[in-house]
Prior knowledge:
Helix content is 35%, strand content 29%. The chain is an alpha/beta fold. The chain folds into two domains: 2-170, P-loop containing nucleotide triphosphate hydrolases (Rossmann fold); 177-246, no CATH class. The strands form two sheets. Strands 6-7-8-9-10-11-12 form a seven-stranded antiparallel sheet, with no helix packed on it. Strands 2-3-4-1-5 form a five-stranded parallel sheet. It is elongated and about 65 Å long.
Amino acid sequence: MFVDREADLQEMERRWGARPQFQLLWGRRRVGKSALIRRFADGKDAIVFQAVAGTVTDQLDLLTRRILAWRSDPELEGSPLSNWARTFAFLERVGRERKASGEPLLVVLDEFQYLAKTDKTVISRLSDFYGVVKHEELPLFIIISGSAISFFERQVEIGGVFGRRTFGGLLPPLGLMHKRITGGRGATLIGSLVGIPFRVRAGSRGPVLVYAGPLGLVRDRLRRRQDGGWDGEATVLGVRIGRFRMTRKGASRPVPD
Length: 257
């Protein structure tokens, strides 16, 4: 089943290395986010933390345990992380150590919406942290992910640190995708989900499908192929999050993203 995420995995692997990366990854529960992250983390030095509903103390105690599972640290063993300022300062120190050794490190904060709910400063702290990572070119591959679609889309629309991501966005559900277009309107059907409506608008390089409602930031940009079908790119605020191919019904089987 994971083969359907090979394109996402290949893009992540292509970016793995000495340069800092900041990936956003959000989508409905059970669409494959955690499996994709686990597959990417396999064989890499990684701190993978999945937040839970609870207090800041609960969350940072769990993060401290995840870090100590990655490597021993006398400072954390004697005094667990107590706030996000100290947490990001610790990660900055680790980033500098990794730069000195020439080894990248994967840092994952999954279900990030829980962290933002219990501590309103965590987003600004993350922004300051990523500013240091970029300025000092620390070899950290940061993934911020979660299942609260409205939270992530709102933060991307606001801008700030979420608008400075290097790549990533909405992870759509797995399954065969169909698009039905009549005139200037249509809908995208993914598996058994209810159709997601869109309007068709003219773009500089071809038609653009503009979605409404919860997916209002998504745009599908189409280009016609020589065989009469279409190649498409799904984007969020101009950042590509996936590719797909479309063929008229009856011509051949559509190719899913």
